[in-house]
Amino acid sequence: MRFVNKLRKKPSYGTKTLTVEEKAKAEIILWSIEQKKHFHEKENSVHGLQVVRGDDEVLRVKTRIIERDDDLSFLYPILLPSKHYLTECLIREYHLKYCHAGVQILAAKLRLQYWIFSSKRNIRSCVSRCVVCKRFTAKALTTPPILLPLDRVIKLETSIPFPKLFKRLPSTSRLLNNGAGPFSISIDCGPSSSLGPFKFDNRAFLAQRSVDCEDRMHTLNETAPL
C-alpha cells in the first residue's frame, strides 16, 4: 500500500514501520481479491450461505445470531475459501499465536472473525504438517531387549525346588519376612536344629537372583551355631 501511494505521489508517511491501520487495510484488500477469485455471489448467497457485501467490498456471512449484542466481526465473519494459500497462512499464524493449539481451539478462535469452508478439515491439515507438533505425536523409539550378564545366568537349577526347601528344616524352625525385599527371609531355629542341608540349597537359589549371596550366606553361617 505504501508503494502504491508513493507512486501516486501521495503524502509520505512519518514512520518507517507499518502502522496498525495500514496492516488492517492490506488484509482487507487481500481478502477481497481472494473472494473475487473463488466466490460468485448470486442473490446474496454463496454455496447456500447468506452473505452481505460491506463498504470495504468484502463478503461477510450473515449468521443467525445477528440480533445478539456482540462484536460485529463475530456476527458477520469474513467468508474465506477452504483451499487457498492465504487461508493456510492465516491458520498457521493462529496456530503459532496460540502456542500450537489443537483443532478445536483454533476453530473457535478463527470463528471470532472468519468463516472458512470445511474449517476443521483445513485446520487439521495445517496442524498435521507442523514440525513442532509432530515431535509430540511421533512414535517412541523401541530397542531390542539386551542379553543378561553372566552373573545372572549361572546356576539356574537347584537341587530341590525352593518351595520344598522348608520340608528339610526342623519342626522347630520358623520362616519370617524381615521386610527387606521379596526374597529376604529371617530364620529362627531352636538350639538342636541343623541348617546344613538348607544352607546348600538356599545358596543355589540365591545365586539365581543376585550376586551378593556371599553376604547372605555369611549371615546364615553365623546363625548356624545358634
TrEMBL record:
Residues 86-137 form the Integrase zinc-binding domain. It comes from Caerostris darwini. The lineage of its organism: Eukaryota, Metazoa, Ecdysozoa, Arthropoda, Chelicerata. GO terms for molecular function: RNA-directed DNA polymerase activity. Keywords: Nucleotidyltransferase, RNA-directed DNA polymerase, Transferase. InterPro entries: Integrase_H2C2. PANTHER family: PHD-TYPE DOMAIN-CONTAINING PROTEIN. This is Reverse transcriptase. The keyword Secreted does not apply. The gene is AVEN_106818_1.
